[in-house]
Amino acid sequence: MVSIEHVKHLAWLSRLDLSNEELVKYHIEIEKIIEYLDRLDSITLSDVEPRYYKKSVSEFRNDQVLETRTDLSKTTKNIKDGYVKAPKMR
User: What is the pLDDT of residues 26-82, one digit of tens each?
Assistant: First the structure.
């Protein structure tokens, strides 16, 4: 299913420099994850009744606004128009 070359490509996309031992380790772990997901796909749920919740999403948790005590303009030098300027993504 997943080859070492796939893992190398994923590592390259993630900008990770993996050793050969790490490549083998992650290859095995990814294979186990995919095997587990395949097992989950094989479960039939046709006889299970769906659950319905009468609460709206906003009722599950109250949002709390917290005041920040740190002035970013004093802690970073990369501020432009009130926003923190980050490096460009490649």
Answer: 999 999 999 999 999 999 988 989 888 777 776 777 778 878 777 767 778 888 887
3-state secondary structure of 5: helix
Task: Look at residues 86, 62, 61, 88 and name the one whose alpha carbon lies nearest to residue 76.
Answer: 86
Q: How far is CA 47 from CA 2, 24, 26, 40, 53, in A?
A: 33, 40, 37, 16, 19
Element (H, E) at 30: helix 20-41
Does the domain at 4-41 match CATH 1.10.20? Answer given as: yes
